[in-house]
Amino acid sequence: MIYTVTLNPSIDYIVEVEDLKLGSLNRMTRDLKLPGGKGINVSRVLNTLEVPNTATGFLGGFTGRYIEQWLSEENISSDFVTVNDDTRINIKLKAGEETEINGTGPVIRDTEAEALVLKLEALQAGDNLVLSGSVPPSLGGAFYSRLIDICKRKKAEFVIDTTGQALKDALALEPLLVKPNHHELAELFGVRINTRDEIITYGRRLMELGARYVLVSMAGEGALFISDQGVYYANAPKGKVKNSVGAGDSMIAGFVGTLSMTGDVLEAFRTGVASGSATAFSDDLAEKALIGQLRSQIEIEQI
């Protein structure tokens, strides 16, 4: 089983305004409310690919119920801890360029945190745990490490998609996969990256620090996959970019889901790139038909 963990989910409220005037009344031309949070995105794309998974984390209030209902209607298995405070709402304001206003999210109490830890004690050997997104301040910086410790004890694999110190701490614990984009990779090592060779150099550093597989997304320039088998490049398929939210999560879902079903890392890479691109070309997350269509455009070459 694949489990996804979203510690600070959201409702993503997408608002489009043709001519934004600050300090004045503005009327929307279109709006959309979607369940948000990186792990939830991974679960939704896994479900699209017909890969069994369970979404967990923290949900609360009327906003949390909205997300649970959405997942239920998509037939996604979920097992969230209910918290006292409301799940946050993030605003994505599209007015020429996109402006994001993210909520802080609920305070997670100690009893609520322990309830999630207890749920994950049910992990078994061969399971995969996908840890995605930031850790709410109320949980403390070491919370991911607690969840990873459960994985290690239970002989389950884990994937981590976060940044900064939380990612650095996780690398020594040998994640199955890390997936920075090229900007996040540069930030992680405190350097400027200008070439593909430099991306490969620092991607290999992630492996030296403990990651088994490294995916580096480069937006319209394609993606790199780095493993002990070698370094591989995949082109980006052609299409009109509509949406930047969730593309990286979709790439993780495509990779992890395909790897769990086939064991083929290069086909997992291909599906990951197709899934990320399909989301970028859609208003919401990727649909299976578009993922399949884009897969045929992707060529993989060993560098």
Question: Describe it for me?
Answer:
- It is a single chain.
- This protein is an alpha/beta fold and 303 residues long.
- It contains 10 helices and 15 strands.
- The protein is 38% helix and 25% strand.
- The strands form 2 sheets. Strands 1, 4, 5, 6, 9, 10, 11, 12, 13, 14 and 15 form an 11-stranded mixed sheet that branches. Strands 3-2-7-8 form a 4-stranded mixed sheet.
- Strand 10, helix 5 and strand 11 form a beta-alpha-beta unit.
- The chain starts with a strand and ends with a strand.
List the helices and strands and how they pair.
Layout: E1 2-6, E2 10-16, E3 30-36, H1 38-48, E4 53-60, H2 61-73, E5 77-78, E6 81-83, E7 88-95, E8 97-101, H3 110-120, E9 128-132, H4 143-154, E10 157-161, H5 164-171, E11 177-178, H6 182-189, H7 196-208, E12 213-217, E13 223-227, E14 230-234, H8 247-262, H9 265-280, H10 288-295, E15 300-302
Parallel strand pairs: 1-4, 1-9, 2-7, 4-5, 4-6, 9-10, 10-11, 11-12
Antiparallel strand pairs: 2-3, 7-8, 12-13, 13-14, 14-15
Helix pairs in contact: 1-8, 8-9, 9-10
